[in-house]
């Protein structure tokens, strides 16, 4: 693989929610910011960082290297940490199993790993339902990248995002190319997809306080977990009333079936940014790629998070220094991981 190719991974991570089977490099803290400036993996370097915004860490991530190439996972949990932790512990294992059975990595083997993880997590919910029904409302967005034999595979459920930085000829410029498909009801295409799948349900998407939500409850249309929106037996008492639907569920509303794409890597593919939605709420694809391109790659993830925080502070008419001092027990609507 050309030396210039795939030198950086920036991915969502948490100090208590990261699994790295590579040379992890130096890590550090800056207030609520946790980071690894540079580390080594099978094909190059990676940088990791996160700003903690939740009192309970709901997110997980991993980077693994082995016979099937390099595997990157970003798991943005919601409703609690259980689903993201489960995915981090099991999705890569299922990916290894399906790839071994198929004697190689394909879009289908990755899809099967997602669906197997969903099936096993649903079984866990079934086991815990009588003692802990709230487990049915826990879910996770899942973003996976696999580099295998000069091919990049990207699989996603939810609204995390992968953006490729590609050099433009000999101009010294860089292009930002989004590789992932997002599943968030605020996107018109997602609302249309839901309406087509549920033509007899006028309330399949509801606008509440300026935000589109599936059944007026959840923004993402695909996830692992959230079984209360997939199986009728988990959408009833003793589940909290705010999650129970008023009409019968005759088919799953959400799905764990990922959008999967593959593309051959080229010598002018410079780096990839893997991030949860918190980053992209504050930085455009182009801005994020420019930040990485115009600075040395060591510390890129930390630099991106600080740029996003500065933009978040500007939107809230706060000083950046004041935003940094907010106690982690106070909810901040700027959960960012790259």
UniProtKB/TrEMBL annotation:
CDD domains: PP2Cc. SMART domains: PP2Cc. Keywords: Hydrolase, Magnesium, Manganese, Metal-binding, Protein phosphatase. The keyword Transcription does not apply. Its cofactor is Mg(2+); Mn(2+). Residues 45-338 form the PPM-type phosphatase domain. It is an enzyme of class 3 (hydrolase). Its EC number is 3.1.3.16. PROSITE patterns: PPM_1, PPM_2. GO terms for molecular function: metal ion binding; protein serine/threonine phosphatase activity. Signal peptide: none annotated. It catalyses: O-phospho-L-seryl-[protein] + H2O = L-seryl-[protein] + phosphate; O-phospho-L-threonyl-[protein] + H2O = L-threonyl-[protein] + phosphate. Belongs to the PP2C family. This is protein-serine/threonine phosphatase. It comes from Nelumbo nucifera.
